[in-house]
Amino acid sequence: MSKYSGQTRLLAATDCIIFGFDGTSIKLLLIKRGLNPFKNKWSLMGGFIQTSESPEDAAVRILEECTGLKDVYMEQFMVFGKPDRDPVERTLSIAYFALIDIHKYENQLNDKYHAEWFLLNEMPDLIFDHSEIVKQAKKQLRYKAALHPILFELLPEKFTIPQLRTLYEGVYETEFDDRNFSRKLLSTNLLVKLNEKDKLSSRKGAFYYKLDKSHYENNFESFLHLIPTPEKFF
Amino acid sequence: MSKYSGQTRLLAATDCIIFGFDGTSIKLLLIKRGLNPFKNKWSLMGGFIQTSESPEDAAVRILEECTGLKDVYMEQFMVFGKPDRDPVERTLSIAYFALIDIHKYENQLNDKYHAEWFLLNEMPDLIFDHSEIVKQAKKQLRYKAALHPILFELLPEKFTIPQLRTLYEGVYETEFDDRNFSRKLLSTNLLVKLNEKDKLSSRKGAFYYKLDKSHYENNFESFLHLIPTPEKFF
DNA sequence: ACAAAAGTGTTCCGTTTACACCCATGC
DNA sequence: GCATGGGTGTAAACGGAACACTTTTGT
């Protein structure tokens, strides 16, 4: 079949905004760009979409290359396509944000990609419009997490409620009432209590919980109300 | 500056899902495709992104070409990019949904594009993956409208609360308690009551309202609760 | 007078919030 | 024993849902 004539073809890339949580703060994984120009400048992890790939496929591939992880929570959130956003050549960027358990991240890949975790407020300048992309991703993360239980994806299998609260407090840069937070969370029935306590961060110790997977999957679209007046944060 | 070598360039198109409301039902504007192959099959309004255009620019241009309207509510909602979605040649589709006041739509453009409004449950088969795109757009419309006051964009400047309720009922294919609906709506302070009644649809007549523009813009991101258990509808 | 639709008032009930208080533990 | 953080109890405030009832007006 013949092609469409007289139209411009352009490059399409996928960029991944990779969020992690180290137990205290939200972090973002950046790499040093391997291509000229701007080689060795900080950049989001990204790559061109290949002939046989959907954008989603590309995002999955890129994420695995960079972190060693598969089956990661990932969400397409916006296309960036200003004609001059990449000075080399016109390139669309299809941006995905990903949430990973930072402890599963394979450090050895570090060498290859010169990847590093950065605190959100200590990020270096990024190439192209990547800083804008990150800004949008942070906004999208807050938005989505206010409504749906996605932040669990940043935690290990077992976690305590205080850990989870610290995570939410990191994302929204505010403090939540610990007592109400834990009760709200338990009332979602998303959590299963384990017979084990984390004794590192307090004398009394906080019980570990894990996700009730089936409940989690079935209720993923239902709205949470863990954040009072969530719109305040957008 | 030299180009990126060894990468595939591809076509990128913008497709617009154009919603309208005729006072009774939600409708979607479709056109007969002008290109071969599949010429004269029903399709979303779309077009290739030009060299100087961002995807957003292209969506605005295409929408104006098709409807004669500028300054329309439009939202980028998803990229469709399976390698084989267009059998002619690989094409990314960046999908936008648009909400227009159907009465402002210029019918004379009809001839040129063979555009027609369709009820959502009376749509013809569409080319490529356009039916899937429409499905996602409907979902996105319900999602967004459950949270934010976007449906006003489908109505004329002046409207009555019963009209608005019919609109919400059309979008969610259910019925809302008229008494609670009107009180909830008024409590948002988004509306300004006019000294004029619509006497066509009832003896008593319903007051016209208009949007309080500044309040609307300032509170656009705040969450509405007009829809009981919104997650039921996704 | 009556019908039909708009709109108000009222009650009930679950949720959220704020905060006092109790619990478990290591030192 | 006591400091520390985890966790429960509780009362007041708020907001949504349901529905009886009032209002307006054309016929």
What does this structure look like?
2 copies of one chain form a homodimer. Chain A is α+β, with helices and mostly antiparallel strands. Chain A folds into 2 domains: 11-147, Alpha-Beta Complex (Nucleoside Triphosphate Pyrophosphohydrolase), CATH 3.90.79.10; 151-233, Arc Repressor Mutant, subunit A (Orthogonal Bundle). Chain A has helices at residues 55-67, 109-113, 130-147, 161-172, 178-187, 213-218, and strands spanning 11-21, 26-32, 42-43, 45-48, 73-80, 91-99, 116-119, 159-160, 191-198, 206-211. In chain A, the strands form 2 sheets. In chain A, strands 1, 2, 3, 4, 5, 6 and 7 form a 7-stranded mixed beta sheet that branches. In chain A, a hairpin with a 4-residue loop joins β1 (11-21) and β2 (26-32). Chains A and B meet through β5 and β6 of A and β5 and β6 of B. Chain A binds a DNA duplex (27 and 27 nucleotides) through α5.
Observed structural traits:
homodimer; 234 residues; alpha+beta; Nucleoside Triphosphate Pyrophosphohydrolase; Arc Repressor Mutant, subunit A; 2 domains; seven-stranded mixed sheet; 10 strands; 27% helix; elongated; DNA-binding
**CATH-scheme architecture of the largest domain in chain A:** Alpha-Beta Complex
Output the number of helix runs of chain A.
6
Query: Helical content of chain A, roughly?
Result: 25-40%
CATH topology name of the largest domain in chain A: Nucleoside Triphosphate Pyrophosphohydrolase
Residue ranges of chain A: pLDDT <50 for 5 or more in a row? none
Termini separation of chain A: 48 Å
How many strands in all of chain A? 10
